[in-house]
Amino acid sequence: MMISTRGRYALRVMADLAEHGTDGYIPMKAIASRQEISLKYLEKILPVLAKNGLIEGIHGKGGGYKLTRLPNEYPVGEILRLTEGDLSPVACLAHSAEPCPNVANCRTRPMWDKLNTLISDYLDSITIADLM
Predict the structure, then answer these.
(1) What's the angle, vertex CA 5, arms to CA 34 and CA 94, rounded to 5?
(2) CA-CA distance, 66 to 16, in Å (whole number)?
(3) Domain count of the chain?
């Protein structure tokens, strides 16, 4: 599993919005400047977060983005699953994977299952508030 730039930037954006939450709606340009992320890249990330209810945005003068929940209510795992898709360490554990015909005889499956659980549990134990 390798977390892409999209996932890493989404976490930075969420932490930025949390840190500046008392400022009302935060313009995309301000986030881009503080986080040193191009506006073009943010234009791909922010709508995904908004569409899935993690943030809300308004257009026009005074517009921008803000969190829809408190920072401690956003597990990092939720954000990464949204931006990255499946976080499984091997393809056979992915949610979209076809059942493996060798699962009953696979000597490595228990190891991968445990690693998958460790990754998920760890990422779900950290919140945006922890990153602030």
Answers:
(1) 140
(2) 10
(3) 1
Q: How many Å apart are CA 31 and CA 38, to the nearest integer?
A: 9
Position of tokens 């969420």? Answer: 14
CB 10 within 8 A of CB 52: no
Q: What are the C-alpha distances in Å from 54 to residues 66, 80, 104, 118?
A: 9, 12, 39, 24
Query: Is there a contact between 21 and 71 (Cβ–Cβ < 8 Å)?
Result: yes
DSSP 37-48: --HHHHHHHHHH
Task: Say if CB 95 and CB 86 are below 8 A apart.
Answer: yes
* 99/127: higher pLDDT: 127
Q: Which letter does DSSP use for residue 74 in this model?
A: -
Contact by Cβ (8 Å): 68, 74: no
pLDDT 10s digits, 30-55:
999 999 999 999 999 999 999 999 99
- CATH number of domain containing 53: 1.10.10.10
Residue 93 belongs to domain spanning: 5-131
